[in-house]
Write a structure and sequence with these properties.
The chain has one domain (about 1-210). It is globular, with a radius of gyration of 17 Å. β5 (about 60) and β6 (about 70) form a beta hairpin. It is built from 7 helices and 9 strands, in the order αβββββββαβαααβαα. The protein has a 5-stranded mixed beta sheet with strand order 1-4-7-8-9, with helices on both faces. A two-stranded antiparallel ribbon has the order 2-3. It has helices spanning about 1-10, 100-115, 135-140, 145-155, 165-175, 185-195, 200-210; strands spanning about 25-30, 30-35, 50, 55-60, 60, 70, 75-80, 125-130, 180-185. About 35% of the residues lie in helices and about 20% in strands. With about 210 residues, it is an alpha/beta fold.
Length: about 210
């Protein structure tokens, strides 16, 4: 469903005021975001792998193994997670409380910082979860700056003092400049229909919900 929606919006930049796509932006499905917590040495028991995303929107290039690299002069970087019946992952093997929202936002900050992007210089920057209206409440407490800040702090503390400078000097300023939240599929589809998308997308969405027993 997300791929259909992103393809539709990508052909209509600025549609309905949401501006999901800024001028010159692109989208990619299943892109990989680098992490501040990649292995420091062979057998690093605190490390994690790249984070996979349902969708990325913005000004970026895709490098080897689908890794997302922000372009010079970029103004947009959004990570979108699409949910129907599933939940956000609750954590990783080595960090059980480090959920998918916290991990994605930490990776966003890392990717932007690696590209030399200063906090506040991206006009469209953040993490959003799309989910059915009836399930939206399951995600709202996770997709908040407060929840993400606390969980990334816990992750950083696993490394002792090694990551504190990154957390205070890079992660927190980037988090403050991001938009983080949830959106109901139904609201997104209504906005598309108001712009002439027709009812086909909603019919497909309803079929998906039926298949998922929602």
């Amino acid at each position: 469903m997300l791929r259909l929606v992103l393809d539709w919006y990508s052909r209509r930049p600025g549609t309905d005021g949401r501006a999901l796509f800024e001028q010159g932006a692109r989208w990619f499905s299943e892109g990989r975001l680098s992490s501040q917590f990649l292995p420091r040495f062979r057998g690093d028991k605190l490390a994690e792998a790249h984070t996979h995303t349902d969708g990325v929107v913005g000004h970026f290039d895709i490098e080897q193994r689908s890794e997302v690299r922000l372009r010079k002069g970029a103004t947009q970087l959004l990570v979108l997670e699409a949910k129907l019946a599933s939940r956000l992952s609750s954590g990783t093997t080595r960090a059980p409380g480090y959920d998918q929202a916290a991990r994605s936002v930490a990776c966003l900050a890392h990717v932007a910082a690696e590209a030399g992007v200063a906090p506040g210089s991206l006009s469209s920057y953040g993490f959003w979860v799309f989910a059915p209206q009836k399930r939206l409440g399951e995600f709202t407490s996770l997709a908040t700056a407060e929840s993400i800040k606390a969980k990334v702090r816990e992750r950083v503390e696993q490394f002792g003092d090694d990551k504190i400078e990154w957390y205070n000097g890079i992660f927190l300023p980037h988090l403050e400049s991001m938009s983080v939240g949830t959106m109901a599929w139904e609201d997104l589809l209504s906005a598309m229909e108001s712009e002439g998308a027709g009812t086909g997308f909603r019919q497909f969405y309803q079929e998906c919900c039926t298949y998922a027993n929602l």
